[in-house]
Amino acid sequence: MPTAAATPSPHRPPGPRGIPIFGTSFMASRDSTGVLERWAREYGDIVFYQFFKAPVFVLFHPQHVEQVLLGKTANFTKGMTSLANPELFGNGLLTSDGEFWRRQRRLSNPAFHRESILRYSEITTEEACRMLAGWKNGETRNIHNDMMNVTLRIVLRSLFGSELGESMRIIEPALDAIMAASSGFRSIALYLKLPTPSRKRHFRAVAEIDRVVYTLIARGREKLNAADAQAAGAKDLLTLLLTARDDDGNSMSDQQLRDEVITLLLAGHETTALNLSWSWYLLAKHPEIEAKLHAELDTVLAGRMPNAADLPKLQYTERVIREALRLYPPAGFNNWTSMDQNLKADGASPWQRLKERFPGVDDPTLAWAWEMASHPTYGTINCMALNEKGEISGVTTTSGLAWKIPGRVGDSPIIGAGLFVDPDVGGGGSTGVGELNIRVAGGHTIVESMRHGMTPKEAVLETLKRVSRLYNDDRKILAKLDIDFYALRKDGEHAAGSLWGGRGSNKNYSVNDGGESRHEPCVFLYEKTA
Ligand code: HEM
Predict the structure, then answer these.
(1) Does the Cβ of 69 fall within 6 Å of ligand 1?
(2) In 392-406, which positions are buried (b, 16+ CB within 10 angstroms) versus exposed (e)?
(3) pLDDT per residue over 352-371, tens digit each?
(4) Please, what are the domains in the chain?
(5) Which of 109, 369, 449, 499 is the one with CA 20 to 30 A from 218?
(6) Whose CA is nearest to atom 32 of ligand 1?
């Protein structure tokens, strides 16, 4: 059992204890997603912790999340993180609740009608083209900066029509300051109202954005009052919100408009930029997926610009975007306050559940099983053997089988990569970065090299060279890669090799000739000098 756990009470799910008075919060960590993953593994579907006086329940099970978001909305109100920043979000859609939220949602409906979406998609394509026109072949760019910039232009133009220039110059740095203040540990300082420099910058930035938005609202009202404005058919989101009326004919006040506009600006900007940045990152790591994506775009668009009507046909593209959303959710944590504490009923600890599930198993055995399940051993092992009759067998077990990180390519299921054995020649195996191994078909390459006369050592080095060539022998990139190859020839000669050796990074492999096992040094392609 994890030792750091707060003792579960009959009414409380287990969770981290944290430090006295302060308690804890996953937001205090630079790797908040990693912390949540660990908690889910260690404590189960519902994790409890205390943040100062606030009791927090973290829900991991999809059914529990659904229950909060869709099932019993009346039992929950928006949680503390969205309410922690009232000067920024005000009472917009993201933070409002109940009847007021319902009214605002209805008033905002025209902004999400089909014609509006078509207009936003035109703006999106125009801005994407504008961005691409500024790129030069072969230059290195900070892709996330580009995505932040282009999504900001898209959301601003969708909101305000063509009023970009001056507003963009003020809003872009102001948003940077706001995001810096509300990320990670700084968000806690903001919530606790600690007088930090980032908190000061945050308030200055909110005031600047307010000034721009109120000016644009005033200009929008003037345009609407001008005789020909409606005839000209202004289609931007602000105009739609300005003209929206509820059942009693009431419209939004300037302040409410400001809250909704800023909510849309913030909700629609960084989320989409993050999703795009992660999608490019993943595509760069998976060229075969990138090729399929381009194939679909070439087929559906045949060289023309995309529009909203193409979306249903771009199914592979959608799957790529969804996978990036799943692996790297831009808005991964959602915060709600329960009105009736109805989560307790499901809060049995994993330990209690294990005991109920396996009533006949003694505690030490269950504890061992729990430890294995909470802290699984992972890694890949290649093992090859030759018996006295000259028969060769081999196996590459991959951690992928039981503890696969979603989306990661395991090597052993690919024939010829993680393992290849030919009884006439010998065997080849590999461990390390599965994607690389698949690209050089490591096991197969080793066996074929030996078939053509190379020694096991030469065959291993030849396969490592192929990995190196994938990156034009660029040692800066190769320094980050970890891959090992193993060879066993039919006559019993063997070798193993790694991309890097030297400077304390030399690797060994295990050998057994029937007596005591021993380690032998791996050969390596490049020597570490620093
Ligand atoms: C990849 C892109 C996006 C992601 C991952 C995302 C995610 C989310 C999440 C998790 C919520 C909270 C749902 C809840 O608590 O019930 C939300 C709410 C919201 N989002 Fe997004 N969002 C994205 C893009 C956008 C865009 C482009 C806009 C508009 C320009 C937008 C506007 C809103 C609004 C207005 C709400 C509040 C809805 C309500 O409560 O009525 N989002 N979004």
Answers:
(1) yes
(2) bebebbbbbeeeeee
(3) 667 777 888 888 888 777 76
(4) 5-79+339-351 (no CATH), 91-334 (1.10.630.10), 381-527 (3.60.20.30)
(5) 109
(6) 267
